[in-house]
Amino acid sequence: MKSDTVICSEGLKILSEHLGLLEAERFVALISREPFDYTQWQRDLYAGMSVEELSAKAKAYWEATHE
Predict the structure, then answer these.
(1) Alpha carbon distance 59, 65 (integer Å)
(2) Is 27 within 8 Å of 15 (Cβ atoms)?
(3) Which of 20, 24, 29, 53 could form a disulfide with 16 if both were Cys (CB 3.0 to 4.6 A apart)?
(4) DSSP of the chain, one letter per residue?
């Protein structure tokens, strides 16, 4: 299992690579500022989506990012 420090470091690296440094910092500030329930957010994000739809999206994402 990764340590909290490693997870934070890797997470910030990923955010910076995909959002840019400024937007990554804004994201962290936004998350820190508001109460955030990841479990509820995830349920809302995938609400109404079938397992097949979710699988198709995951497959498309994998293919797009691992060319």
Answers:
(1) 10
(2) yes
(3) 24
(4) ---HHHHHHHHHHHHHHHH-HHHHHHHHHHHHHS---HHHHHHHHTTT--HHHHHHHHHHHHHHH--
What does the pLDDT look like over 33-44, one tens digit per residue? 888 788 888 888
Instruction: Return the structure tokens found at 57.
Output: 């999206």
Predicted TM-score of the model (pTM): 0.51
Task: Compute the residue count for the chain.
Answer: 67
What pLDDT score was predicted for residue 6?
94
Q: Give just the sign of the alpha carbon dihedral 45, 50, 55, 57.
A: negative
Which residues in the chain show pLDDT less than 70? none
Cα 39 from chain centroid (whole Å): 12
What per-residue confidence (pLDDT) applies to 36?
A: 78
